[in-house]
């Protein structure tokens, strides 16, 4: 009897310790955004400022929802509410037209203190990477340089936004392949014309005849990420200089708006 009581006590204590440990873990890792993030959004996010009152409320809620399932963590760098809200904003902008879209291929965004190498080092190798969607052991992780996160939003009309770039890769990857063809955004008959348009434009970039960032000529996936930055940061210029590309991207990113017109 004494022995069984002893074992029962051990089991009860172990279970209690387990639940306590998990509760502590949650307490230390969970992040709750402040109730009022409107001032951060209004100060830093042009896209948010362009929305009407209902759109702003939706954007606010979706930023908070994103932060409820994706952790933003600094590596040797402080992370504050503004950093978190900006990462979430870069995630929500490209999928804002899709009310039910939640990223199912990411758990965590790591912020690094500066640029980093392809081996994720901030100290060694060629450190020219501003952002990256992780692979292999870094699967479901994204890395962003914190300075690049901040400049993506402080200068949001230069056509460069590392956060939108990396989340465009995740949107592309959602169908299983990071290949420049975001199948959830493209109706099947549009895929072949889209790939042709990518290749024609990459050829123009390679000939030095394009204003599109030459990094977009790396491959089809980088093209989609680079042109997404252009679409969200300088839509009027993209429409004027590349009407065909603009029309296809508008169809992909704002299909509802298109139907209303
Ligand atoms: Zn990229």
Radius of gyration: 22 Å
Placed side by side, the strands forming the largest sheet appear as 1-2-4-3
Q: Any idea what the shape is?
A: globular
Q: Mean of the pLDDT scores?
A: 88
Question: What's a concise summary of this model?
Answer:
With 261 residues, this protein is of the alpha/beta class.
Task: Annotate the secondary structure layout.
Elements: H1 2-29, H2 38-44, H3 46-49, H4 53-69, E1 71-75, H5 81-92, E2 108-112, E3 131-133, E4 141-145, H6 146-154, H7 162-173, H8 188-206, H9 220-233, H10 235-241, H11 243-253, H12 255-260
Helix pairs in contact: 4-5, 7-9, 10-11
This protein binds zinc ion (ZN).
Short descriptors:
261 residues, alpha/beta, 2 domains, 4-stranded mixed beta sheet, 4 strands, 7% strand, globular, binds zinc ion
Report what the structure shows:
The chain is of the alpha/beta class. The protein folds into 2 domains: 145 residues, no CATH class; 87 residues, no CATH class. It contains 12 helices and 4 strands. The chain has a 4-stranded mixed beta sheet with strand order 1-2-4-3. Strand 1, helix 5 and strand 2 form a beta-alpha-beta unit. Helix 4 packs across helix 5, helix 7 packs across helix 9 and helix 10 crosses helix 11. The N and C termini lie far apart (79 Å). About 2% of the residues have low confidence. Zinc ion binds next to helix 7 and helix 9.
């Amino acid at each position: 009897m004494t022995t069984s009581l002893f074992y029962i006590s051990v089991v009860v204590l172990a279970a209690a310790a387990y639940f306590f440990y998990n509760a502590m873990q949650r307490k230390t890792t969970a992040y709750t955004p402040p109730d009022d993030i409107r001032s951060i959004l209004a100060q830093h996010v042009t896209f948010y400022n362009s929305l009407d009152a209902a759109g702003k409320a939706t954007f606010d809620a979706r930023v908070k929802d994103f932060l409820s399932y994706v952790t933003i963590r600094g590596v040797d760098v402080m992370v504050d509410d503004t950093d978190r809200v900006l990462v979430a904003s870069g995630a929500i902008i490209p999928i804002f037209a899709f009310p039910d879209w939640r990223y199912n291929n990411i758990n965590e965004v790591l912020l690094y203190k500066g640029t980093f190498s392809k081996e994720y080092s901030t100290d060694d190798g060629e450190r020219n990477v501003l952002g990256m969607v992780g692979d292999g052991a870094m699967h479901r992780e994204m890395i962003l340089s914190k300075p690049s996160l901040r400049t993506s939003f402080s200068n949001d009309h230069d056509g460069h936004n590392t956060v939108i770039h990396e989340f465009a890769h995740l949107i592309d990857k959602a169908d299983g392949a990071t290949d420049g063809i975001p199948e959830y955004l493209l109706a099947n008959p549009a895929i072949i014309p889209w790939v042709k348009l990518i290749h024609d434009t990459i050829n123009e970039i390679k000939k030095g005849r394009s204003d599109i960032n030459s990094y977009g000529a790396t491959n089809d996936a980088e093209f989609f990420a680079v042109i997404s930055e252009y679409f969200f940061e300088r839509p009027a210029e993209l429409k004027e200089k590349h009407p065909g590309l603009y029309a296809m991207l508008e169809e992909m990113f704002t299909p509802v708006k298109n139907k209303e017109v």
